[in-house]
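Record minuted for completeness.

…
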Amino acid sequence: MMQAFKTYGSLVALLIAIGACQKMDEPALGSYPEDAVSPGGTLSFYAAMDGTGSDALRNAVDSMRAMFPASNSLTSVEGVSGKAMQGGTGTAIVYPSTNDFVKATSITVSLWLKHTESGKTEFLYGLVDDTYSGWSHSGLFLMMEHGSPTEAVVKMGIMDQWMEWPDSHKFPYPIMDGNWHHLAAAYDETTSKLSWYFDGEFVPDAPASATDVKKDGAARGPLNFTAAKKFIVGGWNKQGGADGPKDDWINSFSGSIDQFRLYNAALTADEIHDLFVNKQ
């Protein structure tokens, strides 16, 4: 009996030792920024842009799936929380996908940005989708132009529609004053409305051209991004090497981007306010 006990004890000790060696030999994956507040559990894509090392892909990793970009030539700068990505000329970050965001029928896009007027039309992001092969090859994008320290033209593409704050009714906030600001847009399929938020507060008095999402003249209802492919941050298809327009007026984003989030639901005003307060 004593001999059997010793043999059993030796076997346990051996297994523990082997397990410890295997754990030590496992390659380190590094630590990724974790999202402490995920309203409703609806967060699909989250790039904190917090990397500080020499590996540009690791610096812009998506923390939801530990998904590295396919390419990233942007550099790290001080952000609103930790580090951020500094936009460049003719370049962008390219992600292989947006995880399960493509299944979303209602959405929220949330990011922090720091920008000044460049005199150009600049794109902040684009979701590549060849469904719209007639021109844009993009199911979702955001662009800015004609700005000042107090207002700017802001346009968000949703499927085959441009949601516009035009020259006649510019986005009436200091989005190009050179400071960090939080910008969010939430689309609710039940109302077919796009709501805009600036620095945690709902933007009132938006023109119908910026809020009423339609299809063939009627309320759009559920969105459909299921055919979407890679996701480009800091530019548009042109800068991400995807099919789409290559016009000279299409420029990458020259400002800084931080805390980029995609949700598969329309967040509430309180949830968006919390993102601003917590610098998320």
About this structure: Residues 1-30, 35-40 have pLDDT under 50 and may be disordered. The domain at 41-278 is CATH 2.60.120.200 (Jelly Rolls). The CA atoms of residues 94 and 240 lie 6 Å apart. The chain has four helices and 18 strands.
